[in-house]
Each structure stands twice: as C-alpha cells, then as structure tokens.
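Re: nicotinamide-adenine-dinucleotide structure - here you go.
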Amino acid sequence: MSGNSVPDGAHLLITGGAGFIGSQLVRDLLARRDGTRITVLDKLTYAGNRANLEAVEADVEQAARFAFVRGDIADAAAVAPLVADADAVVNVAAETHVDRSILDPEAFLRTGVIGVHVLLEAVRRETDRARAGDRASAPRLLQVSTDEVYGSVETGRSVETDALAPRSPYAAAKAAGELLVRAYQVTYGLDAVITRGSNTYGPHQHPEKLIPLFVTNALAGEQLPMYGDGMQIRDWLHVADHAAAIDFVLRNGEAGEAYNVAGGTELPNRDVIRRLLAAAGRDWSLVRTVPDRPGHDRRYAMDGSKLAALGWRPRVSFDEGLPATVAWYRDHGAWVDQARTADWDVYYARQYADRLANGRIVDDSTTGAGVESGASPHAAGVDGTR
Ligand code: NAD
Ligand code: DAU
C-alpha cells in the first residue's frame, strides 16, 4: 500500500510534536491551510516546549485544526482513543540526546521501546477494525528513526538494507523501536514506514545538542567543550528539510520500507565549530578539547538515493541554514533561558564540569593534535558530494 492512504485534510496524530523536529512538522503542515487536522501527543519532557507551537495556537484558522494532549506514548489508555481518531500516526517522540542516554539509559528504553510497542498495538487494533469494516481505512504509522541505527560508518555510505549496528543506548533504543515496527508490519500487515534522518539543526533545537550548545555558549562568551579531536563527521540536515521528508514519506513511502533522509553536508565537527564561530562573531579561543564521549561514533554517512528516486531532496544549504540558525538563537534569548530550566544546571554540571576542568586549548588547524586514523574531512565528500 502506498501513501495515498494519507490525503490532504487528514487527521494526523503527531507524537513528540512539542519538540524540535515535531513542532517544525506541525507548524509547516498547518501553515499549508489544506484542511489537515493535527493532534499532538507530547509528554513535555525537559525537551518538549509548548512555546514551539505558539505560532499555531496564535493563528485562529490553524488553532481550529489543532489539539494538544499532554501524555506519554507508553500510556496505552491515553494512546488508544487518539489513534482511533487518527488517519495516520507520526511517531516523532523519543528521548534524543546521546550524552543523556549514556548517563541514564532507562527513559530511552521506556519511550523508544515500550512507547513504540504501545503505539503499534493501538495501530494494530485500528487496522483490525478497518478490516472488520468498523472504520474506513487502517491508520498509516510513520516511525521517525535516525542514521545512528547504522552505527559508526568508517567508509562508504549506509544504504537502507545495511544491518543495524547501534553503539549507544540512544541508538540501540531507536533500532529496537524500528525493529518492532518492521515486525508488526510483517506479522500483522500494518501500514508502516520508517525514516532515518541525519543530524538535524535549525531553530527551536534544545541547547544540549552540538550546534545550539556551541552557538549559545559562544554568544555568551563561554567555553565550547569539543569532544576529543573534533574530527568526528556528521551529515547536517536542516530541520525544515527533515520535516518535509517525513511528510513526503508519509504520503509517498511504500509500506514496510525504510528511507534514509540524508542532509548531504558531511563535515567534521571542527569545521562546524569554525563556521558557527564565524557566524556568531567569535573566535576559536573559546574552544576546549575535553575528554571524549564514551563509544563516540566516528562518522555517520547515508546514501540518500532511495528517497531521491521517489522525488525528494533537501533544499536548505548549510551555508544558508547555519548563519540563519545562529541569528535565531541570538534573537531568542528568552526561548533559550526557558529551555535551560528543568534540570539544565544539574545536567550541565554532570556532563561538563569535570570535562571542562580537564579541557585543553587547541589550535584550529583542520587536522589538529591527536587526529585519529584516516579521518580527513575531505574523505567524506564535504559539502554535499555523494
Ligand atoms: P526533541 O528531544 O527535541 O523532542 C522530543 C519530543 O518528544 C519532546 O517534545 C518530548 O517532550 C517528547 N517526548 C519524549 N518522550 C515522550 C513520551 N514518552 N511520550 C510523548 N512525548 C514524548 O527531539 P528531536 O530532535 O525533535 O527528535 C525527534 C525525533 O527525530 C526523535 O525520534 C529522534 O530520534 C529523531 N531524530 C532526530 C535527529 C536530530 O538530529 N535531532 C536526527 C534524526 C532523527
Ligand atoms: O545523527 C542523528 C542524531 O543526531 C539524532 O538521532 C540524535 O537525536 C541527535 O542528538 C544527534 O546525535 P549526535 O550525537 O550526532 O548529536 P550531538 O549534537 O550530541 O553531537 C554532534 C557531534 O558533536 C558529535 O560528534 C558529538 C560532538 N559534541 C557534542 C556535544 C553536545 C561535542 O564535541 N561536544 C558537545 O558538547
């Protein structure tokens, strides 16, 4: 079954819709004014923020097509009626920060494994009801996953049929969630699709992640804790492109398939840091090399040709998106302050106090001291070559 099951004007249940990528998806879908209705189910963890949905709630026409429910995807009683009322479910909800998964893995498993299972059971029930003629059609489920399920990719680029080899508790929970989705699709015939997005950046991202952490610290004149030699490679994808790809796969993806959503901008962290410092009007003297993340994945790189063949490509270049992101954080100090409530001070001290105490000033040469084997930035096809 292909994505024709999700017409314009459908009622979508979007879990995790108060977070970074989920709220972008909600804002973009409702701004089309095509009749789409959206219910967000979000637990509002430290990473969820109602302020991310203010634009929707302040617009009378959009607000009429929008509902917000605070709740947990692992709570079957909360999930069942929402799935029963939805034409499609987009599961964006997750615990998402690798460093937190290393400190405290349990919440990652509860949401990423049990939560996904609860959603799948609800979709399975509704699929059975559709087969019995009790509802018009079965709900499609889109599971938002990540390139981290492939593990560290030393050479080449991951394709969708590669084995999953997660290496952090976060990535393992995401892989487990995906495998459950695939098992339910095969066993019970659910209409389910999976996206695997690369490192996403842009406005509204919690300032625990590399780009917003370093941008906000740089703007405040604070130290930037670069893990290890800073030559780890990530493939950067603008949040508007990630949200667009999720919507595209929801409508055009084949049931049972997974789709890489590659950003096409593979860069070592040092290059990202150098560029964001330039955009923030700061220099490298703020950077400290600090003890590395345990099990740190050296490189992520995906082949995006499967989604390209369906007709989707990212649109926002890193050269355009990064300075705009820096400007957004400069202009949204109140949003940043709000994001840094909850457990922020405790988390920051736990994650960085010892690291920064052991931090060292490093020069800003591309290779830097202590570069590990064969990690030339150019080996990865910097800036979009695939
Ligand atoms: P985020 O941390 O900004 O937001 C996650 C949202 O999920 C928050 O609003 C939070 O309150 C909510 N949530 C968490 N647990 C929940 C639960 N049990 N029930 C209901 N809501 C819950 O995350 P993000 O960066 O927007 O990532 C969204 C999705 O995209 C995740 O599934 C993540 O694995 C995936 N992803 C993220 C990236 C990235 O670079 N940010 C890249 C690829 C894939
Ligand atoms: O690849 C997709 C994934 O990208 C998503 O699935 C995750 O939800 C998202 O958090 C992100 O994971 P990463 O671990 O790649 O992102 P993070 O921003 O934590 O780190 C990016 C790189 O920067 C990584 O090599 C670690 C490094 N880093 C990060 C932080 C927070 C530092 O050097 N210092 C830091 O303080």
